Amino acid sequence: MQIGWYPGHMKKARELIEDLVKNIDLIVEILDARLPQSSANPVLQELRSRRPFIRVLNKEDLADPATTKAWKSYFELEEGVKALPLSAKNHSAGASLQKLCRRMVPKRCKPGRPLRVMIVGIPNVGKSTMINTLAGKKMARVGDKPAITTCHQQIDLRNGILLSDTPGLLWPHLEDQQAARRLATSGAISENAYDQEEVALFALSWLVETYPQRLKERYKLEDVNGETADLLAKIGSKRGCLIAGGEVNIRRASDLLLQDLRGGKLGRVSFEAPPETSAASET
Ligand code: G4P
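That is the input. Now the predicted structure with guanosine-5',3'-tetraphosphate docked in place:
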C-alpha cells in the first residue's frame, strides 16, 4: 500500500515559505531524532539559501544516543548548519535552543532589532511542544492528530527573539516510501493512511537487523532468524494476540509491536542512521 499525503497544498506552502523566509534571520527545523532525514522537508533546505539553520533533533529521549550523535555530526558538515539534540518536553530545552539561536546570529537580539526566527516542522515532530517550552506557557496547541491549518503567527518571546510559526505548513516528504514507512513507524502518519501489518513488518526487519538482542529480551525469543512474518506471528503468539482456534491475530500483533516501539518499550531506538555511517548498532 502506497502511503500518500496532502496533495494539492504543496505549491502554495512552498510559495508562502519562500515569501516568509525573506524577512527571517534564522530557520529552526524541528525533526524527530529517531528519523531525522525522513522527518525533514527538503524544500526548506532549498529555500534557506545561506541563512543560518538549526536542525533540532527532538525526542532525543526516545532515540538511540549514539545514532543521534552521528546525525549531529552529519548535519553539521554543512556550512551554517547546527544540530541540537533535545527533548522539547524538558524545561531546559527552551534555554538551550535560545542560546544557540543567539550564538548563530549575534548581531540581532538588540533593542529594535529582534532575532527573527522561523520555526517549522512536519506534524507530530513536537513543534507545538517546543514553542510552548520556548514561550514558557501554553501558547500552541499540542496534540497527536496531523492537521492542516495554513496560517502565519508571530510569537514575541520578549527577550529579543521573535518567533514566526506557520502551523500546518510543512508536509512529510512521502515520495520515498522507505521514509514514509519510517514516519508511519514513528506514529507521525494517521493510521488510516497505511497498512499496519506492512509497517510492523518493516519496523521488525529494522529491529532484527539493528537491535536483535532487545527483541529477544522483550518478547522472550530464542532467536530472531527466519522470515519476518513468522517472527511477527511468534511475537503475537507469545503476547496472547490470538483469535478463536488459537490462531494469531496479526493485526493486533502489529499494533502491539508498533505501540511497544513508539512507547520506548524496546529502549531508545533510532529508525535510520546517517548515510555515511553503517546502521545504528545495538548497545
Ligand atoms: P507537532 O506540533 O509537531 O504536531 O507536535 P506536538 O508538539 O503536538 O507533539 C506530538 C507528540 O509528541 C505529543 O505527544 C508530544 O507530547 C510528543 N512530544 C513532543 N516532544 C517530545 C519529546 O521531546 N519527547 C517525547 N517523548 N515526546 C515528545 P502526544 O501523546 O501526541 O500528545 P500529549 O498527550 O503528550 O499532549
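The radius of gyration is 20 Å.
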